[in-house]
Every structure is written in C-alpha cells, then in structure tokens.
Amino acid sequence: MVTVKENLESSPYYKIPFSHVVAKKRAKNVYWGCKWNVKDICQATTVLVVHGLCLFAPFYFNWKAVWLGVVLSWITGIGITVSFHRNLAHSSFKLPKGDPIDWVSIHKYHHKYVDTERDPHSPVEGFWFSHVNWLFDMDYMNQKTGVRIVLTLHGTFLVNSACHIWGRRDWNTRDLSKNNWLVAILTFGEGWHNNHHAFEFSATFSQRWWQVDFGWCLIKLMETIGLATEVKVPSEVHKQKMMIPST
Fold this sequence. Notes:
Family: Belongs to the fatty acid desaturase type 1 family.
Low-confidence stretches: 1-6, 141-145
Subcellular location: Membrane
Number of helices: 11
Mean pLDDT: 81
Oligomer: single chain
Largest sheet: 2 strands, antiparallel
Strand order of the largest sheet: 1-2
Number of domains: 1
Shape: globular
Distance between the termini: 41 Å
Organism: Stephania cephalantha
Helix content: 40-55%
Radius of gyration: 20 Å
Strand content: under 5%
GO molecular function: oxidoreductase activity, acting on paired donors, with oxidation of a pair of donors resulting in the reduction of molecular oxygen to two molecules of water
Membrane topology: Multi-pass membrane protein
C-alpha cells in the first residue's frame, strides 16, 4: 500500500512553504549538474566575494560607513528600478539612454513567458531557483563591493522570487505575480509586482495612494523639470479591464 507521504516524495512537484505556489523538482542541481564556463565562474566568484566581504563588516563597523552604504544602496536601487526596469525594459517614459542588453532582454523574456518553464526566473522551478540559482543555470537560460551590492542583489532577487509567491493580487493577471509591501519598501516600488504585471507599460508601480513607490517619485520629479517625457500610466479603461471579477 502506497502512503500519502510516499506519493509526495515520488511526485515531481512540491509546494513552496506558506504559499499556494506549486514548484517542479529540478532533475539536476544547478551548481553540480551543469558544465561551467568562464562566464559562470566569473559570476559565481563575484557573488561569493561580495557575500564574503559582508562577513568582515562587523569588524570594521562605523556609522559613517553605514550611512554611506545606505545612500549608495538607495542610488543603486533607484537606478535599477527607474532606468533599467521602467525606462529601458518597458519604455514607460523617455530619457537619454544607453543599451544594457542583457538585463533588458532577460526581463522581456520574463514577461513574455511569465511563470512558465520558459521564464528565466520563476518560482515554478522553486523559490531558490527564482531567487538566485537561475544566474548559474546557463543551460536553462539558453533554453528558455560588499554589503551594498549584496543588499541590492537580494532586493532585486526578491522581486523575482517572493513577489511571485507571497502577497496580494489586486489585478486579474495570468500569472503568479503578487503585490508585496515589504519588498516594495526594500526595492523603491518594485514590490508592487502584480500592479506591474497588470500594466507593464506604466511608469508607476503604485496604484493606490498608500503604495510607496520612490521610483515613481523620481520619475515625476524628472517630468516636472522636463527631463522625462511621454510618461505612461494606466487609464481608468485599462484598470477596468484588469479588475478581478467579483464573486
């Protein structure tokens, strides 16, 4: 007689704790089950080094360094959400710009195949895969300076992982995206992820007066001084189309 526990253990799927998301067990380990190339090694070395540097932070603690780290983290985070994400990946407003192809192409691929097996970083492959392991699985990708850097990295990673697992859904999107207020605070508005997937073109990720979005504040400032133009936001018609049907 086969028990329920045995059925779960033999199943190719498992449930991510404290969520309704069901992930698929990976056939191979991301780190040991693939061939490493020079890019993989450089990427892994960078991640290990910046995390390793964090271990020394308590021994060199001083408040000047803390506040400098906070300011630099804020600048880096704002740069990611405003420039890389909203401006370059989604063209939600216009600015003089360059062309960081890798970040934009991966993000566009995420939206095109969101929460499917072809999504570069979806929790359907597991929490840790969507959070960070996807960086080191080059087969999967082909187919389908210390504390500041670590904080920024994991803030961005949380949008890919936590915001597709935990939070609230305000809009009827065809994916697992959630609005997560904690991630939103940590990432300057990126955590309003269900809003973003509902209105990908929008320069603002907040759709309620109480939803804090520092990235949007900066965009509005740039619009006011004439630097940002053609700023896109959802209309009431857009919102009506994306509303969750009442039961």
